[in-house]
Amino acid sequence: MRCSKRGSGLPILPAGQSSGSARQLPPAFALALALLLSVPGSVPYTQMFWAQRPVEGGGQGRAPRPVSVDVAIAQVGSLGADLRYTGTTQPLRQATLRTRTEGLLLQLAVDVGDPVQAGQLLGQLDPTLLQAALLQAQSQLAAQESQVAQAQAQLSNARTQVEQARLNLLQLEADAERLGQLAQEGAVSAQQAEQARTAARTAAQALRSAEEQVRVQEQAVIAAQRQVEAQGSLVAQAQERLSYTQLRSPLTGVVLSRQADPGTFLNAGADVLTVADFSQVRVEFPLSELELARVQVGQAVQVELDAFPGQRFAGQIARISPAADPQARLIPVEVVIPNPGGRIGSGLLARVELTRPQAQRVIVPATAIQQNEPGAALVFVVERQGETARVLARPVQLGAQRDGQVEIVSGLEAGEPFVVRSAAPLQDGQEVQLSVISERL
């Protein structure tokens, strides 16, 4: 090999110095170097001058630091999507207090929002006319009862006359028999014996007449008693109508609305108050027929109310209508929520959440899944041996995916530790270091 022109020898570049700053080699030394490089098997220029450079970061043969990994314990769960429906809160029961008779409303003791008890007196209608009608009916009842007493007294007298007639008949029959025997013996005349028999027959007729009078008096007593019963019914009706002037609460709850004021003349059937029971609250919502098989009476639900942000109320399905809307194919479903203290009112927007029953499987974050080839997935399971932790590649079969979570159908069991994420790619059997946020093994 020829050497280049004089003054153009190869530069010697110290480590970290560029060629622009290198000094030129003497001509003789450059010629010797060119001859050396032309010999077969000689060491390349770059190796001769650079092979002995020290490796940055430490000496040769130092073991690499284990990769840091986040480790979690496999847990069982479900990725089933929840069903959400919208409804409106209603009281458990609601009743409107209406007048059952006409009259002037004298007083009303409660207003909207006031608590009431079942049977509590809430208002009063003018009872004057109905009180007069009751007094008249009671007076007639007393007169009918007097007639019953008179009929019973007459019946008693008739029964006394019957007893007297029976005793008289017995006496006359005995006399007729005795005189008949004496007439046969010739002690008395036949005329006297015949007169005695005639007197006995007359006494028997008088007894039958007295017994018939008793039956007549018994019928009179029965008729009078029935009149008393009928009049008693009229008195009870008058008392019932009088009770209609007292307006009493039909249930325990609170006054929801008020439709009348004292001083108003009300006809029968006029609305006065609406009372609602808020011990529990109902929420009715339409359910698609496609979801009907997923719900049942008694199933637990969660309810959110805009009126109480951040709170969830536990309830359950109380009723499922047997009839669907023929047009929309929606089925009314009723949910009942306990309401201690009556905090939840009526007409509030409610969001009902139904949880679909799903198979429970191991759920892992999507970051834990590694795809080693198309259609094949694996998870790195952590195995601890003393102070050393290693990862083992485990093939898994994936299921549903939702919100960054993946179902593991097979390949990973609940309770096994696995790598959620790592600082660098992992290899089967590689030693790793658990991060500070890892779950304890």
Q: Which descriptor suits the 3D outline?
A: elongated
Q: Fraction of residues in helices?
A: 25-40%
Query: What is the number of E strands?
Result: 21
Mean pLDDT: 84
User: How many helical elements?
Assistant: 4
What's the gyration radius in Å?
Answer: 57 Å
> Sheet with the most strands?
9 strands, mixed
Provide keyphrases for this structure.
single chain; 441 residues; 9-stranded mixed β-sheet; alpha+beta
Q: How is the topology of this model organized?
A:
Layout: H1 27-38, H2 45-50, E1 67-73, E2 75-77, E3 83-98, E4 103-108, E5 115-116, E6 121-125, H3 128-185, H4 190-243, E7 246-248, E8 253-258, E9 265-266, E10 271-288, E11 300-305, E12 312-320, E13 330-338, E14 349-354, E15 361-365, E16 370-373, E17 376-385, E18 388-402, E19 405-410, E20 417-422, E21 431-434
Parallel strand pairs: 1-21
Antiparallel strand pairs: 1-20, 2-15, 3-10, 3-14, 4-6, 4-9, 5-8, 6-7, 8-10, 10-13, 11-12, 11-14, 12-13, 15-19, 16-17, 17-18, 18-19, 18-21
Helix pairs in contact: 3-4
What would you note in describing this structure?
- The chain is built from four helices and 21 strands.
- Residues 1-25 and 28-59 have low confidence and may be disordered.
- The chain is an alpha+beta fold.
- The chain has helices at 27-38, 45-50, 128-185, 190-243, and strands spanning 67-73, 75-77, 83-98, 103-108, 115-116, 121-125, 246-248, 253-258, 265-266, 271-288, 300-305, 312-320, 330-338, 349-354, 361-365, 370-373, 376-385, 388-402, 405-410, 417-422, 431-434.
